[in-house]
Amino acid sequence: MAHFDTEYQRLEASDNDSPPGGDDMLVHVPEGAKSQWHHIENLDLFFQRVYNLHQKNGFTCMLLGEIFELVQLVFVVAFTVFLANCVDYDILFANKLVNHTQRGHETMKVTLPDAFLPADVCSARIRDNVFVIFIMIIAGVFWLHRFIKFIYNICCYWEIRSFYINALRIPMADLPYFTWQEVQARIIEIQKEHQMCIHKKELSELDIYHRILRFKNYMVAMVNKSLLPIRYHHPLLGNAVFYTRGLKYNFELIFFWGPGSLFENEWSLKPEYKRGGNRLELAGRLSTRILWIGVANLLLCPIILIWQILYAFFSYTEVIKREPGSLGARCWSLYGRCYLRHFNELDHELMSRLSKGYKASSKYMNCFMSPLLTVVAKNVAFFAGSILAVLISLTIYDEDVLAVEHVLTTITLLGVCVTICRSFIPDKHMVFCPEQLLKVILAHIHYMPDHWQGNAHRYETRDEFSQLFQYKAVFILEELLSPVITPFILIFCLRHKALEIIDFFRNFTVEVVGAGDTCSFAQMDVRQHGHPAWMSAGKTEASIYQQAEDGKTELSLMHFAITNPRWQPPRESTHFISQLKGKVQREATSRQQGALPENHLFTSIQSIQSESEPHSLIANLLVGPPSMGSFQFGREGHAAPHISSTGGSDVASALRSLSPLSTSQHLRGSYTSTHPPRSDGTELTGARCMAGGNTDARTASSGSSAWEGQLSSMVLSEYASTEMSIHALYMHELHKQQSQTEPARHTWHRQESDDSSESAPEESEVPHGLPRSATFPSASARQHPYQEQAALHSSGQRRHGGTTVIGGPRAAPRFSRLPMGGWAEEVQAVRHHETVPEEGTEEELPPQIHKLT
């Protein structure tokens, strides 16, 4: 087979030239008619600042936050130097007498200024300490850099403030009361007037999300494909995850914006990384760069470690003293936020749904209290509490007891001990129901490995979930250890994945007109990255290497369509959503007609149609007891689980209950009176119910929409969140039913990515030590020749590395794995063009890449 190279032509920002295949994309505006925001060169940075200013509640709040960050840095350094060099601790601890301590027969109290050294002695001690001078110089340089950046940001955000006031017509005082969807709708509207992007007449919601989340989408995809070295197997600790803010910062520095990174600017990948001819050379250069950055981290490790310790001490000491049990509280880990994040999901959207799942997650983790530890904690708390009660009683009787040495310290330590012990004692009224809690958690976090279902009571499931939902104390400890561990991860782990990283960015980068180079997974195209086990069977052409794991493509598509109801999906995505809605409609209709057995769950779902609180819908959906109809007797009379669509139909009925007649009328009566129409004439024509009818995925502004009317945007957001939660449950139920009939292998935490540089293993082989689950269908079900299809949707994108070029009809490619990593594309010989000479020797040939027309 002949070898071809795909030439990539960068789309220039010109007023005279149109992008290939898009003559109507470029808009020419006369010089005199151009506004201040016409043709913004760096739209990524512009939209990110618009979003940040909205999230920080306006210019004044952002300005104060930036100023206090500068003051904090000065305070931490100055206060630490003062404590180390200007305090006489012998006087402070009463180990040395002060001259005025005793005057005649009167004893004078030692004051705090008595423990301070004179200014000349303090300055002399600082000058004589070389290490302190070095730390102050480094801190001064860093503070000066932050100050210059602060001045630059203030100038930039002043322009964003002007954009809000003059272009979007949103005063700064009202900005905290606008949702991001409202701000985004106004940005899309003024694009027609100001032409911020000259490559498209109109911007879509997806264009804005691509600009804001370009690099975050890449990070989510790399975590989803197990490309980043953040999971490890320790002989003593077992499987562990280490992903900190310092490690994340280094990843972004290497890949996206640091010197020598893969991107030449915020929106464009460097041309040499878009071709496969010199992939080995590029991998070598990337490996060397990672080595030098790792060495730099190692040299700066002492300074960063000292800063981390001081910052943690000043930040958490007061909190621990006030609430000793706070270290026993839990938080979503940095890895959990990345693993659970949808493609094209903004920060506030992610944190909103994770916060809704926090209480259920805490209850689930508390179900696994050790009985032995509980007995010990109860008795230790009894003894410590008894001594504490006596000391407090004596203190109330005579406050001079506090003057006795170490009494106050003992009271404090005993109080901390009692608080910690109580955190290990479960609530006596708590009912052990892990399966139910895990289902509630799934409704909010949307992602869960297959082998967790039915095994929620096992400690293995609990340990894996703790990697996503970790103790606050573990989070702090990992951040403190990060300066020490990060250099070794970069030098010994990330360097060996350089070739896989190069192949990843080449194979999964597409050019989108109006957005630049984006991660192809962020397109949420079920045809390119769908998974057959997640309702994409027959609609996807993706190989194992191209498939997103855990239904990430399908769930992200549903989440984005529900969150942005005005967005018009591409044809393939619209077909997927329509098919899902049709399945919901059929199953809900079958349930209502009595085709499926009745149960209490369905009754509870129907009973809450008149309630206006959206959370009651999902609550009733999750608390219903299982129906006897969900079991059927086998041939020998034994009860066997019935894997028909009963469970899915219950969720389908819940989706069907979000209907126009049952929700919009009640909401219109409840909220219109308290939320009058906006004075500026803005009306909220809300989202459509995804399951209610056969309307398009785009917002329907007709009277049959479940969300129409002048309703509060916050209420609409809650209903959209509830709708997505039920869709997530429904899709997981369908995935579970499908996977039970197909052999599968577990891929949630794969130890190696599918595009490794070694020869591909057989599909039947499973990495050692990984539990089996139902995520991938068997190889035999996927190894079929691809069918030719028509042209892709008109989003104007190219896939680098010979994968996809959008702009004309072509045959759908099929891929095969190469021994050296990467993937080759096979096309019919009649579509081949002239051969382009390849770089390198015969032993180092790049992947087979063909030019497509």
TrEMBL record:
Biased composition, class Basic and acidic residues, residue ranges: 743-753
Keyword Iron: no
Pfam families linked to this entry: ATG9
Composition bias type Polar residues, residue spans: 662-676, 696-708
InterPro entries xref list: Autophagy-rel_prot_9
Function: Phospholipid scramblase involved in autophagy by mediating autophagosomal membrane expansion. Cycles between the preautophagosomal structure/phagophore assembly site (PAS) and the cytoplasmic vesicle pool and supplies membrane for the growing autophagosome. Lipid scramblase activity plays a key role in preautophagosomal structure/phagophore assembly by distributing the phospholipids that arrive through ATG2 (ATG2A or ATG2B) from the cytoplasmic to the luminal leaflet of the bilayer, thereby driving autophagosomal membrane expansion.
Membrane topology: Multi-pass membrane protein
Lineage summary: Eukaryota, Metazoa, Chordata, Craniata, Vertebrata
Domain of life according to the entry: Eukaryota
Family indicated by similarity: Belongs to the ATG9 family.
Protein name: Autophagy-related protein 9
Entries under PANTHER family matching the protein: APG9 AUTOPHAGY 9, AUTOPHAGY-RELATED PROTEIN 9A
Segments traversing the membrane: 67-87, 130-148, 290-314, 372-397, 403-425
